[in-house]
Hints:
Layout lengths: L2 H19 L11 H15 L6 E2 L2 E2 L6 H13 L3 H27 L2 H12 L2 H7 L5 H19 L3 H22 L2 H16 L6 H4 L1 H21 L3 H15 L12 H8 L7 H11 L4 H19 L12 H17 L4 H26 L13 H22 L4 H10 L2 H9 L3 H7 L2 H6 L9 E4 L4 H8 L5 E2 L21 H11 L5 E5 L15 E5 L3 E6 L4
Parallel strand pairs: 3-4, 3-5
Antiparallel strand pairs: 1-2, 5-7, 6-7
Helix pairs in contact: 1-4, 1-5, 2-3, 2-23, 3-4, 4-5, 4-6, 4-7, 4-16, 5-16, 5-19, 7-8, 7-9, 8-9, 8-11, 9-15, 14-16, 15-16, 17-18, 18-19, 18-20
Amino acid sequence: MSKEEKRFALAIPICFIILYILPLGLRPLWIPDEVRYAEIPREMLASGNWIVPHLDGLRYFEKPVFGYWLNALSLWTFGENAFASRFPSAMAAGLSALLLFLLTYRFAKRLPAAAFCAALFLTSFEVFAIGVFNVLDSLFALSITASLVAFFFGIQSYGKSQRYYLALFGFACGIGFLTKGFLAFALPLLVIVPFMIWENRWKELFSCCWLPLGTALLTVMPWSLAVYLQAPDYWHYFFWVEHIKRFSAENAPHLKPFWFYIPMLIAGAFPWSVFAPQAIHSLWRSRINTPLMRFALCWLLLPFLFLSFSKGKLGTYILPCFAPLAILISLGLWHQFNQQVEKCAKWGERVIITLLVLFATALLCIQLFDFGVKVYADSGETWKYLVVVSSVGVWIGLIRSAMSCADPLQRVIRYCAAPLAFMLSIHFALPKQVEDNKAPASFLQSVATMISPQTLIVSDCNMVHAVAWQYKRNDMFLISSGELEYGLTYPDAQQRFLDKEKFKQFLAQFQSKRPIAIFYRDKEFVYNALLPANVQRFRYGKCGMLFFVKGPQ
């Protein structure tokens, strides 16, 4: 093991901290996802109820609680801010990379190949984008990665070590269930059964299943029983609406065609997806008979097909497929470079350079010439697109340098270093019009002095999470229900929803008594005709408008 190989491995956690951790607080939280997964833990901390999730004070049953618990712990540790809310997601990406490193180092027997696998995973665009974003998918993907890595270690071990790993496998499945539900059991099962049949070890499934099953049950049962006792209808909603209907109903949320995840996987794995065909072809010819390669193929293909059959799809759902893809591509490329197979690799390098040149040229042309639209529309944002274009130039330069490099390790290092400047620039160089549209924090801060504890707040479903987070309130009235519809059906919450007639009565009752603030994101307020003449109107970009009705002091 050379010093250069050790430096490469040690550089990965340093780059992870610089790219994933340090910039987490630089951007305001986006709606609806980031503020939702910040507000629910905040309300847990404020109320002391760690069993039944609430959003804006309403029961919210779309997910279990473990992700909320981790976010709440982060908020308690670092404060109620953007950094704290994103920290668990970023750490989940880093821990997933560490598990991939341990897996490939144990079974591929080469430190640089294992380090390459971890670096490739962290520099895949979807892994990065979700890892620095406050959603539960990164935590869920970590649970799937941990469960499958533990299982593979287990079936390659014997005696006490095997029992230890199988118990970890069950525990990880249980944590995945507490994070996002029944998929935490379904996805590992889809991988394990075909793999064990392929290995001609299927009889072992009947003897090794009891320990992880018992561990998983011990992990999930305490909270599962507790939430049933406090909210008996939780499991009906969570199982039928969030799983069965989302998977099979023709009107499922986020309805997408069967092939939707194919371009998502290719785009999400960029820049490494360019090398995927030749990397996998290289493995197929030389090393497919190894258990690790078989396991990685089952891990990639079967969950991908299963998720593709689901009616409801989001790009984040296939995040668990990026770990096996990183194993296959990294080991395939490492084998190619060591065998001096140049043709395919240089074809991939030329494709990346061509795509980057086209991207930088298109961005510059849009900014310099009048096409009726600009990515960076604000006059003070020139530096942002110059930073982006410069980072693309660094990327191209390092790829060209890798093309002329004969040493496999140096080539891998330059590949991995190439996109780092561009990834770092994303934290700083997002267009202001995007932030204004997706992050209403500046707008809400600008009117914060008008909001007092006595102010009655009305919001639509698009703004309610951000309003609750900004003003630390969970008593808002709603003029549209959205994902809070089920929580509003409870008798103690029905008065919180204001249809047209109820809104009219609401104004008549409180207009002369208390200040009223109304937040929404639309071209025009839905009940605009009912507003009094003395209403004050505030607008901030495309993010939304504020109608402020001020009663007597």
